[in-house]
Amino acid sequence: MKKILITRKLIKDSEDKATKIFEAKLNSNDELYSRAKVIEMSQGCEAVLTSLTDKMDEEMINKLPNTIKVISNFAVGFGNIDLEAAKKKGIAVTNTPEVLSDATAEIGILLILGACRRVSEGIQSAKESNWKWSADYLIGKQLTGTRLGILGMGRIGQKIAAIAKSLGMIIHYHNRSKLSVEKEQGAIYHDSLRSLFEVSDVLSICCPATKETENLINKETLEYFPTGAVITNVARGDIVDDVALIDALNKKKIFAAGLDVYKGEPNLNPGYLKIKSVFILPHLGSATKHTRIAMANLAIDNIYEFFKTGNCKNKVN
Ligand code: GLV
After folding, report:
1. Which tens digit of pLDDT belongs to each residue from 37-93?
2. Report field, pTM of the whole predicted structure over 0.70
3. What is the number of other CB atoms lying within 10 angstroms of the CB of residue 256?
4. Residue numbers annotated as active site
5. pLDDT-based confidence at 201, cuts 50/70/90?
């Protein structure tokens, strides 16, 4: 049996599956392992099943024992792993696409609704019982007839587009390449970011975090949006320059933001906490039992497939 290290506690069904197939080192207390501990624990192992909380940068990868042949990330995003460094060391990196698209799109829609309809302020007022109904009380932005820009029209973006369309939103998108007419489902393609942002009353960020997308939402690009636009992010915090977004919110250039992901999670920029129109969640995108089991099982299957065939369809480097 191959020895593997699983750095975080998984739902029991998945741990049972892992221990049937592998000699798996589990993390029963879900301790947040230090970098040194991951290196120490991975001695003698042939694969590491990582989570997005594990920063597998070049230094870390170079310190892994030479026996490690696979890093299987328990996430669709792999911005926490230096793919090139892994490739140089002969380590395959895999991810868990598709199985989390539905759950993540649900949170993407929640962010749009929460930010547009001033849900944070509403919850606060309801809890304090200090609100007085009036015709103009907590007026938000209605989704029906509003233009939704989707940045990154992969599986999650397409799912958000389909739900938003059913709510009456008009869908625009930017993607590395234009989708087929069948996949577009009537969405309007923009070949530049600027052109997308100029028509985005609401933006949903769904693209991966890469060197190219880092701080894509910044002081300059925020100026492209219509005044009073809403920015939502269900992808990764690294895509947003927080200081620029907080400034645009304070200046009311941006009406509201809906965020599930942050730079330096779990420590989000405290500036967001001072702004009432910000609707924030603690990285819940894929957080349903069904989805987390499916993701973990896929992460385990990815390791199995790699050792059985020498390759894996979810290899990303
Ligand atoms: C969750 O954020 C993921 O990338 O799977």
Report:
1. 999 999 999 999 999 999 999 999 999 999 999 999 999 999 999 999 999 999 999
2. yes
3. 28
4. 236, 265, 283
5. very high
Ligand 1 pocket, residue 75 CB under 6 Å? yes
Q: How big is the CA angle at 30 (ends 27 and 35), to the nearest 5 degrees?
A: 75
Tell me the CA–centroid distance for residue 198 and ligand 1, in Å.
28
The answer to whether the CB of 286 is under 6 A from ligand 1 is yes
For Cα atoms 11, 15, 20, give the angle at the middle one, nearest 5 degrees.
155
Distance 188 CA to ligand 1 centre (A): 26
- What confidence category does residue 8 fall into, taking pLDDT thresholds of 50, 70 and 90? very high
In this structure, the residue with its CA closest to atom 5 of ligand 1 is 75
Distance 285 CA to ligand 1 centre (A): 7
Q: Which atom of ligand 1 is nearest to the CA of 295?
A: 5
Does the CB atom of residue 285 touch ligand 1 within 6 A? yes
Cβ neighbourhood burial of 315 (10 Å; 0-12, 13-18, 19+): middle
CA 260 to chain centre: 8
Identify the structural domains of the chain with CATH numbers, from first to last. 3-97+288-309 (3.40.50.720), 101-280 (3.40.50.720)
Picking from 279, 220, 267, the residue whose alpha carbon sits closest to that of residue 248 is 220
CA of 286 to the centre of ligand 1 (A): 7
Beta bridge partners of 259: 233, 280
**Cα–Cα–Cα angle for 226, 152, 157, nearest 5°?**
95
What pLDDT does residue 299 have?
A: 98
Q: Are strands 70-73 and 188-189 parallel, antiparallel or unpaired?
A: unpaired
Q: 317 CB contacts (<8 Å, ≥6 apart)?
A: 83, 84, 86, 87, 92, 93
